[in-house]
Amino acid sequence: MPDHAYLPPQPGSVVPHVGTYRRVLPVDLERMFENALDWEHLPHLHASSFGSLTLCEAGAWGWRARLTNATGVESEIELRLDRRQRRWVTRNLAGPNVGAEIWTYCIERGAREIEIFIDFFVPGVPEDAREKVGRAYAKAYEVLYDEDVEMMVQRHRALDERVEGVSRELDEVCLGLAAELDLPSTVQFAGRTLIIDCIEDEYVVYPARCPHMLAPLQGVSLHGFEVRCPWHGYRFDVRNGRCLSGQACQLKAPCFIQMRQGVLYLVADS
User: Fold this and answer.
1) For residue 137, which of 49, 120, 129, 166 is within the disulfide window of CB 3.0 to 4.6 Å?
2) Residue spans of the chain under pLDDT 50
C-alpha cells in the first residue's frame, strides 16, 4: 500500500464530503500538534499557497487568522485542536468556500510514524463534482505536507542534538589564517554548530540554527548583515544577534571573533 492516497467521497453527508487524503509521516504526535498550532510558518514555508497572514487570536486551543493566497484572494480561517481526540478541525469562516471544514485525524503507527486521515467537507458541491473537488483539495494538502515534513524531521534532529547538551571544553578555537579561509563555513564550538562569514570586511559568527524553533540557517543567504529564518521569517542581525522582526529571541553565539596577526580565533564569552 502506498504511504499516501486519496479516498473517494462518502455519500449522504449534510455538508458534502468530497474525499479523504491519507498519508504516513515520519514524525511523532507532538510534532504534528506543534505543526498544526504553528500559524506563523504558513506564509513563509508555504509561499506558493499563502501570500500573507494576520493573526486574530491564538492559544492552546488553536488559532484564527485572516489570510491571502498567492494571488491575493482573502479568506478567514480557524483551526481548533483537540489533543485528546488527536484531531484538529480547520474551518473557512469567510472568503472562497466559506463553510468548508477540514478534519484531520492522527494515528500513531510507531515511535515516529504518524498516519493522518484528512476529510474534506465543502458546501454546495453537486454530487457528480465532489470527487473532482476532493482531488483538488487532496493535491493542495499533498503539497503542504511535502513542504511541512522536512521542517518537522529537521526539528526532530535538532531537538535530539539539544538533548545531548552543550559543553565548553575549550575557551578558544583557532580558525586559521583569515586570508585562507573559505567563507561562509561552519565550526563546532561549545557543543554548537556556528557559521563564520565575512561581510563588508567584517567577520561575524552566529548559530547555525534559529533560536525560535531551530530552523537550519546553513545555506541561507545574508542580506547585508541580516539573516532570515526560512521557516517563520524571523530576521536577525548577525553582528549582535538582535532580532530585527520584533520577536523576543536572539541569535547569539557563545563566542566572538578575534584576529591576531592575520589569524582568526573564536574566543568564549566570559
Assistant:
1) 120
2) none
